[in-house]
Design goal:
There is one protein chain. By secondary structure, this protein is α+β, with helices and mostly antiparallel strands. It has helices spanning 16-26, 32-39, 46-57, 90-93, 95-110, 120-156, 160-182, 184-194, 197-200, 208-226, 229-233, 237-240, 248-258; strands at 5-6, 13-14, 63-67, 72-77, 82-87, 114-119. Helices cover 63% and strands 10% of the residues. Strand 3 and strand 4 (72-77) form a beta hairpin. It has 3 domains: 1-40, no CATH class; 44-141, VSR Endonuclease (Endonuclease, Chain A, 3-Layer(aba) Sandwich), CATH 3.40.960; 158-258, no CATH class. The protein is built from 13 helices and 6 strands. Bound molecules: zinc ion (2 copies).
Length: 260
C-alpha cells in the first residue's frame, strides 16, 4: 500500500506528510479540506467538531451540522435518536438563549429525539472522557433497541429464517424513515437538484444516512434474490427478462447485481 491513512471526516486517502501534519496540528487525521473545515467558522463550533471527530473515531454513526427542518443540530445520531448540542457559556447566562434551547429540546423530544447538552469547557478539558461517556450512553440505547427487537420477534413467534428477513426489513425501514422523515428537509433539497435518480445514486458522499439506507436496501434485495422472493412478488418479471425492468429501481438493482 502506498497510502496507509485516510481522512477521519471524509475518508479521502492521506499521504504521510499530510497525515503527520494534521495529527501534529489538529490531533486528528484530516485531509487539507477537512483541516480548513475544522478551524474555519461554520454553524458548528470547533468544540462541536472536535467532539464529532472523537465520536467518529469510536465508530459512532454521527453527523455534524445537521439541519432538521427547524434548526441546525451540532451533532446528530439519528440511528439512536440522540442529538448532541455543544454550548458556550452564554447558553447558561443568557435566559433568552436558555428558553430557546428548552423549546428546541421539546421539539426534538416530540420527534422522538433526546438532546444531550455538552458545555465547551468539558470538551476543552476532558474530550476523551466525554466521548467515552457518550459511547456508554449510546451502547445502553442500543441495548434498549435490541430488547425491543427481541420482544417483537417473540410476540410474532418467528422462525430463524423469518427473523433474518425481519431484521433486514426493519433495518431498511428504519433508514428509510430517517432519510425521508427525520432528514426530510435535507432529502428534499437534494432531490430538487437531482430528481428521483438521486435516491439511488451513491455520489452524495455527505448524505451519510442515505448511504446506510442503500446498504440496508442492498442487503434486503440480495436476500430476496437469493430466496426467490422477487419471483413470487413479481411473477414473470425475473424469469422472462434477463434483468429487472427498465425503471430507475430496476436499473439500480441490475447494476448492483452485476457489480457483485
Ligand atoms: Zn477530509
Ligand atoms: Zn422497475
Amino acid at each position: 500500500m502506498f497510502v496507509e491513512h485516510s481522512c477521519l471526516k471524509c475518508g479521502y486517502p492521506l499521504y504521510d506528510e499530510v497525515y503527520d501534519y494534521s495529527i501534529r496540528n489538529h490531533g486528528f487525521p484530516l485531509c487539507r479540506v477537512c483541516q480548513c473545515w475544522l478551524t474555519n467558522k461554520t454553524k458548528a463550533t470547533e468544540y462541536a467538531k472536535r467532539l464529532y471527530l472523537e465520536l467518529k473515531k469510536r465508530h459512532v454513526p454521527v453527523e455534524i451540522e445537521k439541519f432538521d427542518g427547524h434548526k441546525t443540530i451540532d451533532i446528530a445520531i439519528p440511528r439512536f435518536r440522540i442529538n448532541i448540542e455543544v454550548d458556550g457559556s452564554h447558553h447558561n447566562i443568557d435566559s433568552k438563549q436558555a428558553l430557546v434551547d428548552l423549546q428546541r429540546t421539546k421539539y426534538s423530544l416530540e420527534k422522538g429525539y433526546e438532546t444531550i447538552r455538552i458545555p465547551n469547557s468539558l470538551i476543552k478539558d476532558s474530550l476523551n472522557q466525554t466521548a467515552d461517556s457518550l459511547v456508554v450512553i449510546l451502547k445502553n440505547r442500543k441495548k434498549e433497541m435490541d430488547d425491543e427487537r427481541l420482544k417483537s420477534i417473540n410476540i410474532m413467534e418467528l422462525s430463524p429464517r423469518e427473523v433474518q428477513l425481519y431484521d433486514l426489513l426493519v433495518d431498511f425501514l428504519k433508514w428509510l424513515y430517517i432519510v425521508f422523515e427525520v432528514d426530510g428537509e435535507y432529502t428534499k433539497t437534494i432531490l430538487e437538484n437531482t430528481g428521483t435518480e438521486g435516491i439511488l445514486s451513491d455520489t452524495y458522499g455527505n448524505w451519510a444516512n442515505h448511504e446506510y439506507m442503500l446498504t440496508a436496501f442492498n442487503k434486503l434485495t440480495d436476500y430476496m434474490q437469493d430466496n426467490n422472493i422477487f419471483e413470487s412478488a413479481t411473477p414473470g418479471l425475473a424469469s422472462d427478462y434477463e434483468g429487472f425492468c427498465g425503471c430507475s429501481l430496476g436499473g439500480f438493482l441490475e447494476r448492483n447485481r452485476n457489480s457483485r
